[in-house]
Design a protein that fits this description.
heterodimer; A: 333 residues; alpha/beta; Rossmann fold; 2 domains; 6-stranded parallel sheet; 4-stranded parallel sheet; 14 strands; 43% helix; B: 327 residues; mainly alpha; two-stranded antiparallel ribbon; 2 strands
């Protein structure tokens, strides 16, 4: 009887493995699904690495790394529905839309699945905990600080954002505006939108340099925009005059740091982010921690987070990358 | 004769472009400096190259929605080739880009020609297949500027007679395809196959085969543009040029290429692309709220298409009336 069950189980598991491309090793494995905005983005690939690292440390945890092929809420809903059907233990999602995912995620929670959001959050009713990579005020402060650090005598800066409706970027720019008083002499002359398309961002950056010939820095808090802006500055022959900074990935920005188009930029560590999200999902799904305001959850080597009134928490400060450490990080993510 | 020239599609578009430039210069005088106009032309070159290919496909009553995906796939392949073998001469890279692009175009062409699947379905399918293939090839990773060889990035930017090579590629393509479309049997066959497929068949033209060649040319141009694109923006990833196929079709339609086939010129496609390119480059500098920019781009396209539909309808009526009288 026992033997027959085992054979059945193995058959079932290999079927599951062939269907979902993930390896479930034993029956009591906890399966945590990491749902990202879209597959094929370096940042999320790095987060998946971190999640796998956490899974190994925790033991008995299988990671399902998945997401739609384009950054749409519809695509994520389909993915989440299929995860509910598979009966995973926890879903950790970086959402494409704050509200659109809520009904689907509520359905998941009703089925006893632990739901947390990370990076880009969903509304509080659609998740148990939200993990911010950093706090929005810290990021808003960091992006202007990056520009101001290289402008001791003040100067004109412009912001190149993603789309006009990108939640993340809009909040960061808002927070940045709040702390502008701490940086006397720094003027934000314009905010433009490159829609996270390389060609449009390039064109917007070129337009900025034409409209504001005295521009000193372009702040691009988006990974596509910062790379395109750096290329536009290099092509316009304005390296040294216009400093491109903001948020980007070391591997993608290595060329810009090397050419001098960008002096420094910041990003949290996506590896740590995926790692921490996995720790939180595991703690909640196993019952080791409860999702309530004030709760403290250990996130392994990264430290401990404390949940605030909306059950969200900040992981850490953004990390600054420049010529001194880019070589070390460009091969990581 | 003069009246026909003035009321021609191309003349109207030139007029519209001049008017557009005047309007822009009232808000941002620097835009019409020759150096800036050269930059705008350079920025529009990829669109011009793709619009020429698309025009030929549309002439034969087909449509190629896979151009942007073809561009992205070819761009990814050549940049991966460059990373694997940085010493490879640029001529080889260009040959790989054009060759691979042409092959992908042939794949579309074969499906349309031999299996008679509607082109919109074929290219919608291959569009997704190409994007998926990039994903498989790259594992979703980016090829970044520091991984590309200096020569790979330098070619489109190299100045030749004070214009970058990227611009020259577009100029050469315009001249080459003007000759092909007006002076060669294949060029005339494209018009015949789309203008009246039945008559073309009776005249001994293989319509399916002509469509196949149209897709091949469109693919080859998309492949070439793929290299130019990744080199210009110094980055290759799955989503590059996402949605660009719509810009390409819009450029053709604005340029007076009839979506019903058989009507269109290289000059029209060039002007249509320039019209869109000028709007795209002007919007960032004329200080219009970004919230309005998309609406303005869309509005310009609809106005152009409305004009186009008007012009084409008149033409159709006249021909029908003559046919009525004759019988």
């Amino acid at each position: 009887m026992k033997r027959r069950n085992f054979t059945k189980l193995t058959a079932g598991l290999s079927l599951a493995a062939s269907l979902f491309g993930t390896s479930a090793m034993a029956q009591d494995d906890m399966r945590i699904a990491l749902v990202v905005k879209a597959l094929g983005i370096g940042f999320f690939e790095a987060a998946a690495e971190g999640a796998k690292e956490a899974a190994e440390e925790l033991g008995g945890v299988g990671i399902i790394y998945t997401g739609p092929t384009d950054t749409t809420a519809e695509g994520q809903i389909e993915v989440i529905n299929s995860l509910i059907a598979q009966g995973v233990d926890a879903i950790a999602v970086s959402s494409n839309d704050t509200d659109a995912l809520v009904p689907t995620l509520q359905k998941a929670m009703q089925r006893g699945i632990t739901v947390i959001s990370w990076d880009s959050g969903v509304a509080p009713e659609g998740r148990q905990v939200h993990l911010n990579p950093s706090s929005n005020p810290l990021i808003g402060n960091m992006i202007i600080k990056l520009a101001a650090d290289h402008l001791p005598d003040g100067g004109d800066v412009a912001v190149l954002s993603a789309t006009t409706t990108s939640t993340n970027q809009n909040i960061w720019i808002e927070e940045m505006t709040k702390v502008m008083g701490d940086y006397p002499g720094i003027n934000v002359v314009a905010t433009v939108y490159g829609d996270d398309l390389a060609d449009k961002s390039y064109r917007e950056a070129t337009g900025l340099m034409q409209s504001y010939p005295d521009l000193d820095a372009i702040i691009a808090p988006t990974s596509v925009g910062i790379v395109a802006a750096a290329q536009a500055v290099a092509d316009a022959g304005k390296i040294g005059e216009v400093n491109v900074t903001g948020l980007g990935l070391p591997s993608e920005m290595a060329g810009a740091i090397e050419s001098g188009a960008s002096k420094s930029f910041a990003i949290w560590n996506p590896i740590d982010l995926g790692y921490s999200a996995t720790y939180i999902a595991h703690a909640l799904a196993s019952g080791a921690a409860a999702a309530e305001p004030g709760a403290e959850i250990s996130i392994g080597r990264v430290g401990t987070i404390t949940l605030d009134d909306t059950n969200s928490a900040a992981m850490a400060d953004p990390f600054v990358y420049d010529a001194s450490n880019i070589e070390q990080f460009k091969s990581i993510f | 004769m003069l009246k026909r020239l003035i009321t021609s599609r191309e003349a109207l578009l030139i007029g519209a472009i001049v008017l557009l430039l005047v309007l822009i210069s009232t808000r941002f005088p620097g835009f019409v400096r020759p150096a800036n106009l050269a930059n705008v032309f350079n920025d529009t070159s990829p669109l011009i190259l793709l619009a020429i290919g698309q025009m030929i496909v549309i002439l034969t009553k087909c449509i190629d929605l896979s151009v942007a995906a073809n561009l992205a796939l070819t761009g990814m392949v050549v940049s991966m080739v460059n990373v694997a073998a940085p010493g490879l001469p640029m001529a080889v890279i260009l040959a790989v880009a054009i060759g691979l692009g042409a092959l992908l175009g042939m794949f579309n062409g074969i499906l349309v020609w031999k299996l008679q699947i509607p082109p919109i379905v074929v290219t919608l399918g291959t569009m997704t297949i190409f994007r998926g293939t990039i994903f498989l090839l790259s594992d979703g990773k980016w090829v970044n500027s520091h991984e590309m060889s200096p020569a790979f990035k330098a070619l489109p930017r190299t100045d030749f007679l004070s214009l970058p090579v990227l611009s020259w590629m577009a100029i050469i393509a315009v001249i080459l395809f003007t000759i092909v479309m007006t002076r060669t049997t294949l060029g005339r066959a494209f018009y015949a196959a789309g203008g009246n497929p039945h008559a073309a068949t009776y005249a001994g033209i293989n319509v399916g085969k002509t469509q196949f060649w149209a897709f091949t040319i469109s693919g080859a141009l998309a492949g070439l543009t793929g290299y130019l694109w990744v080199s210009r923006f110094a980055v290759a990833y799955v989503d590059i040029a996402g949605g660009f196929e719509l810009d390409v079709v819009a450029a053709c339609v604005i340029g007076g290429v009839s979506i019903m086939g058989g009507i269109g010129t290289v000059a029209g496609a060039l002007l249509g692309a320039l019209f869109l390119g000028i709007i795209k480059n002007a919007l960032p500098v004329v200080d219009i709220s970004p919230f309005w920019q998309l609406a303005i781009s869309g509005g310009a396209i609809i106005i152009a298409v409305a004009l186009n539909a008007q012009a084409n309808r008149e033409k159709g009526r006249i021909i029908l009336k003559r046919a009525e009288h004759a019988t």
